[in-house]
Amino acid sequence: MNAIPVRTSLRNAPGRPLNREELDRLRERAWQECGLVCLYPDEFSNDFVKQGAANDMAKKFGKRMKR
Predict the structure, then answer these.
(1) How far is Cα of residue 8 from the mean position of the Cα atoms in its chain?
(2) Contact status, residue 31 vs residue 24, Cβ threshold 8 Å
(3) Span 41-66, pLDDT tens digits
(4) C-alpha count within 13 angstroms, C-beta hemisphere, residue 21
(5) Where are the domains of the chain?
């Protein structure tokens, strides 16, 4: 009996978590190809802007997981 193929977006997922350098290369490509901005919270130089961005993202996506 043949298995039914399952469509998934996970076939291109990395087999392990990406390190910071690998994530930075993806961020660069996302910016250059799509105009997508991905910032780490510690990259904000202004605490007011940082808190505002954190509030907006928490409202849209939910609270961050604690590390």
Answers:
(1) 19
(2) no
(3) 889 999 999 999 999 989 998 988 77
(4) 0
(5) 19-61
- For 9-31, the pLDDT digits (tens) are 777 776 788 899 999 999 999 99
CA-to-CA distance for 22 and 13, rounded, in angstroms? 13
DSSP-derived letter for residue 6 is -
Query: Where do we find the tokens 């990406």?
Result: 18
Cα separation of 31 and 34, whole Å? 6
The reported pLDDT for the residue numbered 67 is 60
- Kindly report the pTM of this predicted structure: 0.58
* HEC readout, 7-48: CCHHHHCCCCCCCHHHHHHHHHHHHHHHCCCCCCHHHCCCHH
At 6, the amino acid letter reads V
